[in-house]
Amino acid sequence: xxxxxxAGSVPSEPAQSPAQSSFHPSVQQEHGRPEPVRPETGxxxxxxxxxxxxxxxxxxxxxAVMRDGALAWSGGRGRVGGTRPDADTQSRIGxxxxxxxxxxxxxxxxxxxxxFADPLDRHVPGTPFGDRTLAQLLxxxxxxxxxTNGPWWERTPGAEWPGLAETLDGGVARQRAGRRFHYxxxxxxxxxxxxxxxxxxxxxxxxRSEVLEPLELRRTTYAPQRPHASGxxxxxxxxxxLPEPDHDAGAMAPAGQLWSTVADLARWAxxxxxxxxxxxxxxxxxxxREPHAVEQAPTWxxxxxxxxxxxxxxxxxxxxxxxSMPGFLAGLYVDVEQxxxxxxxxxxxxxxxxxxxVSDLIDVVEAREPRLAPEWTPVPxxxxxxxxxxxxxxxxxxxxxxxxxxxxxxDLRPIGEGGRASRFRPNADGTWTGLDGYxxxxxxxxxxxxxxxxxxxxxxxxxxxREPYDPNAPIPGGVHPAGWTGTDxxxxxxxxxxxx
Length: 500
What we know:
By secondary structure, this protein is α+β, with helices and mostly antiparallel strands. The protein is built from 10 helices and 22 strands.
């Protein structure tokens, strides 16, 4: 069994200095070498962390910024065992554990062992909610209750799967499947059992061998390893603390068991931004980051993909997850488009605002060190025939432009107002598959005349021609023989009204 933690110390007044990055940063400057944030930026980041630690009365707080795939800055305030916490200090990460569980399930899908649309009964038979799909469990739309039956699982020793299964009854399904977003820790305990049955080992053993070791997340563990913070509750009306329990969650471990550091989580933030290190297909990760459900609110700000939260923070869309366990709060959030994210770990039951803190850290870096525009260079080659497809196209009178991307994709965008936008990936048979937007999953077929010249594009039966309603393209329903004219079908001016 995992080892128990050692006792921590109540923090004392610190003398502050920023923690150093524990692995090589990869911020690409104009000269091409990786660099950390500039000293003045680091000072502002530390100022924001210090403000959070002081106002939130957090015994120990660490934070880090990931930029372009690696750690660009880290810092800490407070005390752990009498010393300043840094990028190598562990804290419990709570529900950020769910993102790791979701990746394990996604790996099984990519291997063909399961489908997200499969009912649970196909993989873990015998539960009273076996009709709920794996995707519904991952996106918290299964309708299951939030917590397990019995004492609150976060504060009591957890049973293994047989013990948890005995507590499940028909009452745990509180909503119609798919009706609404309802966060369910129980659902992720069940998903951990799906992983265990397919792998023939525990959820933790699968996670360690399939994800943590390949990504070199050596300080992400089931139980704490020194140096680590101890969890505290801070008295609401006095500056004293109370130690919190840190029980083994047992079968509920996939929902919130893990311990980690801001250095390891910065690597996981890079993973969330797309640097999957061969552990998962980037396409699968992109699918997981798509919002499958949103929380009911007058204005959408919080949604959920397959194991990942999708949040609106001002003008940003952030992907990641928050985490809480008794004595600990955590957050990991990434602006995927900017490849910029942050993490924070605090050993307190309340007082830390992970999303607010991380959002501010991201804003500081972007405001003080805006990204240089990428240097343009020509691509070595394009897929055969691509140049025949690029340029303006018309669906009826609506103009769109088709551009060849540097990645070999085609990018369809409207010219002016309206129209539909999608990216397309080439297929071996000469067709293209839509990746996003209205045409996601749809097929683009290239129409050609006998001599091979391109005449039109057929995208899910929508015909795009080189001219508006080109009579040489197979326009559904045909084109009126009168063609483009300033008169209506009766010979009157098309813009006239009765009486003129």
